[in-house]
Write a structure and sequence with these properties.
Chain A has 440 residues and is mostly helical. In chain A, 75% of the residues lie in helices and 0% in strands. Chain B has five helices and four strands, in the order E-H-E-H-H-H-E-H-E. Chain B has a four-stranded antiparallel beta sheet with strand order 2-3-1-4, covered by helices on one side. The chains are: A mainly alpha (440), B alpha+beta (179).
Chain lengths: 440, 179
């Protein structure tokens, strides 16, 4: 049995408190009126002569000046973007940690559906990580409900005034409306949590009573069913929760793209947590070959993610249809560094670091690659959400870092507390002996 | 120089693996093992050095990537630039997304083909090469271990090998090592 050390508990609580305070400060420090924005920008312009951001602001200011709207339209735009910023950073962090747990849940279901023999020694680690789905899902649902009913301005399609002047969103209003949005979110989350509940329950029952593998067979059936449900709902989730930030834009492989992102993040967290627990003297039955296999998955899914990233990019770049290509133009013009930087972090770095077979068995190589992959996928989510919510007014500031710390603290607290609930070895699993002796 | 080797035949890969470990524990020298299929872990048990084919594969991949870049730069940019899909660019980097699939394919192509050719050359295999395996049954259901018997007591060695589970043992006088 694992016991949560008081140091780890304290560490996670400190993260949550610091993150919470920072986030509140982030919300409070948003400008309240156009005048404040003008002051802020004037101060910025005075400070940084070579600052790229202020230059672009000055340029667009000039363009707007000639515009018939008058000079204040631009400032109002920036005001809305800055007011969105803490909300958007809260959303990015909430989604990022939720998607890790969701990726682990899908990975866990695949192990059962494939009747994998190598992985049962890691099942308790996976079950612990999926425990975050409950609090993470509830928080995300609350944020989604607030956004879907236009309490904040995250989703433009939720703003009735915007919709009134937008033919394209009007055409999509049958799908993109607050009520439907919330009902769908409830169905997605409900289905995933239901599977999580029963899968963990059956896994624990199998330990108590492994006679005839009755509970294992139930796990197998429910996992196979869940995977069918998951791939449809995950795809729709990605349209609702991410793609609808840019309601004019669409991409048919977006669901797969988000799936690759959450899958690789989830597997990476399994590897990191396993290595951490081994370093603390737990999981003595996990050997190098298990770490090697997890690292192979990290390597493989990173390449799969890059393949989808590029597939999406190349087709849109080649066809150059205005309503599609705008998505990449915003990202390349305003988000050049994070957009291409995360491609290097998520693809080139793992490709080179984890290519060698021996390196996949060296724990600190896997940890290093894992941390880079997680940072990369945070930036991936960031560049999917920020351009539509804060536009060119982005910077990684107080509210972004605080939101990550808050959810990181919650994540660590929940998953390690869930780990104490059951023995670390799923001893009733029929493949547990094979898994213990897994050797590559 | 004539050398003496012993051919011990086995019918099961697990028995063979155990035998290989025992023979090596007794410090006899195994010349070669012939199997009808790859036996997992046999290379480690025999103490064969680590394969370096992965390193060659990486280098061949890099070569393929460079070839594809140079080739397309010449064909599509320098020699005969074309306006395809409204992208009349005379720069490789600006047209790069369109070239990525070819860069990928040629990387894989070079890595795969050159790796196979390297493997054949390293294993001394080429068309019309006469088979080296000493017993045709090793292509069907038998495993053959070739143990160097020079400077050893042949009788003692044969009885030791039959203890390891060999179903058939032959002492062979090789006229000349044809390796």
């Amino acid at each position: 049995m694992y016991t949560l050390s008081s140091r780890l508990r304290l560490f996670s609580v400190i993260l949550m408190v610091v993150g919470g305070i920072g986030l509140v400060a982030g919300f409070l420090s948003t400008p309240g009126s156009v005048e404040e924005v003008k002051e802020m920008m004037a101060a910025q312009d005075a400070h940084g002569g070579g600052h790229g951001e202020s230059e672009s602001h000055a340029q667009s200011e000039g363009e707007h000046g000639e515009d018939a709207h008058g000079g204040d339209a631009h400032y109002e735009h920036v005001l809305h973007q800055l007011q969105n910023k803490p909300w958007a950073s809260l959303y990015v962090a909430a989604f990022f940690f939720f998607m890790i747990a969701l990726g682990v849940l899908a990975f866990y279901a695949i192990q059962f559906a494939a009747q994998a023999g190598w992985s049962p020694v890691l099942f308790r680690v996976m079950e612990a990580i999926t425990a975050y789905l409950v609090p993470g899902g509830i928080i995300l649902f609350v944020i989604l409900a607030l956004s879907g009913f236009h309490v904040n301005h995250l989703f433009v399609w939720a703003d009735p005034e915007v919709v009134a002047h937008d033919k394209l969103i009007q055409g999509k209003a049958g799908w993109l409306n607050g009520t439907g949005f919330i009902i769908r979110a409830a169905i997605f989350l409900g289905g995933w949590l239901l599977y999580r509940h029963f899968a963990v329950k059956y896994s624990r029952k199998q330990d108590e009573d492994s006679e005839g593998n009755k509970w294992y067979k139930k796990s197998f059936k429910i996992s196979a069913g869940f995977l069918v449900f998951f791939i449809y709902t995950e795809s729709m989730m990605s349209w609702d929760w991410i793609m609808s930030f840019d309601p004019h834009w669409f991409s048919t492989l977006f669901g797969w793209y988000v799936f690759a992102s959450l899958f690789v993040s989830g597997i990476t967290v399994i590897a990191l947590m396993t290595i951490y627990l081994k370093s603390k003297g737990y999981l003595e039955f996990v050997n190098d070959s298990h770490i090697h296999d997890l690292a192979k998955f990290m390597f493989g899914i990173s390449i799969f993610w890059a393949y989808l990233w590029f597939s999406q990019f190349m087709l849109i770049w080649y066809s150059n249809i205005p309503e599609e290509v705008t998505y990449f133009i915003t990202r390349i013009e305003d988000y050049k560094l994070p957009f291409f930087g995360m491609f290097a972090l998520n693809f080139i770095f793992p490709l080179l670091i984890l290519m060698n077979s021996d390196f996949k068995r060296v724990n600190w190589f896997v940890v290093m690659a894992g941390i880079v992959i997680l940072c990369g996928h945070y930036i991936d989510v960031y560049t999917m959400i920020m351009p539509a919510t804060v536009g060119a007014s982005w910077f990684i500031g107080l509210s972004e870092i605080s939101a990550v710390l808050l959810f990181l603290g919650l994540f660590i607290f929940v998953i390690f507390r869930a780990l104490t609930k059951a023995p670390l070895l799923a001893k009733g699993n029929p493949y547990i002996e094979e898994s213990k002796h897994f050797h590559y | 120089m004539a050398s003496k080797v012993i051919h011990a035949l086995y019918t099961d890969d697990d028995v063979l693996m155990d035998a290989v470990k025992k023979v090596r524990a007794e410090h006899y020298h195994i010349e070669e093992v012939f199997c009808p299929f790859p036996v997992h872990g046999l290379d480690k048990a025999m103490g064969l050095p680590y394969t370096r084919i992965a390193i060659t594969s990486f280098m061949y991949g890099c070569l393929g990537l460079i070839v594809s870049i140079v080739m397309m730069n010449y064909i599509m940019i320098e020699d005969w630039p074309q306006n395809i899909g409204g992208k009349p660019s005379f720069s490789y980097i600006e047209n790069m997304p369109a070239f990525v699939p070819i860069m990928f394919e040629l990387t894989v192509f070079f890595a795969a083909h050159l790796m196979v050719i390297t493997f054949y050359m390293r294993s001394r295999l080429w068309p019309f090469k006469e088979a080296e395996n000493p017993d045709v049954r090793t292509t069907d259901d038998h495993f053959l271990m070739e143990v160097d018997a020079a400077h050893h007591d042949v009788n003692k060695l044969t009885s030791f090998l039959s203890d390891t589970g060999a179903v058939e043992i032959k002492v062979i006088d090789k006229e000349e090592d044809n390796h």
